[in-house]
Amino acid sequence: MRAAEPTAPAWLRQRHGTEAVRVEDPGFGGDGDALIVSRTGVAATVFVADCVPVLIAAGENVAAVHAGWRGLASGVLASAIRELRRTGAGDPARAEAWVGPAIGRCCYEVDEDVAGRVESASGPEAVIRRSGRKPHLDLPLAASVQLAGLGVDRVWRSGCCVRCDSNWWSYRRDGARAGRNYAFIWRTREGVRASVSLG
Q1: Distance of alpha carbon 9 from its chain centroid, rounded?
Q2: DSSP 8-state code for residue 116
């Protein structure tokens, strides 16, 4: 039986922005919200507590993206795909993406200005409006729509709302005592591995 290949995480100081950063070594890689890695055994890592973790595999590269409403409204996924293309990932249609557990449309009530910004970037299907109530956002759907618009056709969504499911951390539910959910993606000699866990 072959021993498991060693894997070590790389991570960024997330800023709710759009900067895509390439690193090749494990450990802290600087500031940004999209982490690109091509080295086998180095896991691109993202931390979330309501925001959407998006994991992408494209060619020899993997990416972990922190996609909250600000990042989705401002183009963090476009930044990640642009960096993947720049570094030789090839056709984004051959990429695969996984949209991990995040706050769901059932629980993510926002002000109209926030809804409008995400709607402008993702389309009307990302916003749920009901008479007499504040709008709700479907961030996982917004991420999926944006990925499709960027040419990534193979997208899987977990369908899990972290606020509803107490197995995950949620800032909306837990407040300042909330921990973080970790999402990892890395390459081995045999292919791509991905995992999401409670921090």
Answers
A1: 16
A2: H
pLDDT tens, residue by residue, 103-137: 999 999 999 999 999 999 999 999 999 988 999 99
d(C-alpha 54, C-alpha 2), whole Å: 30
Candidates 128, 141, 140; CA nearest to 196 is 140
Give the pLDDT mean for 44-56.
97
- Predicted confidence at residue 190, as pLDDT, reads 86
Structure tokens at 110: 């926002």
Task: Give every CB contact of residue 147 below 8 A, 6+ residues apart in sequence.
Answer: 54, 77, 97, 99, 155
Cα 114 from Cα 108, distance rounded (Å): 11
In the chain, beta strands by DSSP E: 8-13, 20-22, 27-31, 34-37, 42-48, 52-58, 61-67, 96-99, 127-128, 136-137, 154-157, 181-187, 192-198
Query: Given CA atoms 99, 75, 182, 190 in this order, what sign does their dihedral have?
Result: positive
pLDDT score for 92: 61
- Give yes or no for a contact between 156 and 97, defined as CB atoms under 8 angstroms apart: yes
Residue 57 or residue 191, greater confidence? 57
Q: Which residue, among 73, 69, 41, 37, has the nearest Cα to 55 in the 3D structure?
A: 37
Q: Which two tokens stand for residue 166?
A: 């107490």
